[in-house]
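Quick one: structure for this chain?
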Amino acid sequence: MRTLTQVWVFFVTLTITLLVIGFQLRGRLGLFLSFLFSLFLIYIILHRGVLLFKNQLSYKEQLGSDPTGFVKLLNTLNIQYTGGQHMDLHLFFAKDNTPPLVWKDYPNKGFIVIHESLLEHLTENEKKILAHFLLSHLKMHPTFRPRLFSVFEMGFLHLQFLFSPIISLVATLFRSPQYYLQSDLMSLQNSHASSYEFGYFLKKLHDFKFHSSQKLHGAEYFSVLTSRKHSFLKNYGQPRLRTRFLTVMGFVP
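Got it. Here's what it folds into:
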């Protein structure tokens, strides 16, 4: 199902469901209130969903000069992932602990957030692998669903013990873990790294302490890494790290 179709199906279903519930509870008044609530929820998901977790971060967009050369590298390699079409890429450096995050504003606007210290800990070849890794996930990850899951994750923040497993299950049913594995394989192929080299690069990313955050909520659905809080009931639609290692290198380092 195409992204635009998914959006319409979800919002029509959501609105009808809320209208029925509102009418059953409070008649015409409930019908009116549920209609307003559905409009508010749609606005939050489409226009504020990303901002909700971005406001938890201290970050700065890389504009003007490019001392690391990473913006130029991303724009150069991105042609491989867009079929020659132009994508407006925005790179942000975060001061707070955060895993690398990616998301799209449909159709041709991409956003990438990485910790400000990440590039300092990578070799030149690892920076190239990182660029392929981020662009692969940006290409493969859905546009709409991560926003939806993130908003519900944050909306039920104090009831995460109850709702997170449900959201994780829905994300898994929508094959979110497969997008991670496909993105890993795509970046492995395009970066021309060996399976051994790519696997240890993936391990290195997961081992950095600044990629672990306890205060960042809802961002897991935009992360390219498997969360350290990953569990069977709370997987955020991510595959196990063990599965990712086995997929790209055939063993767990």
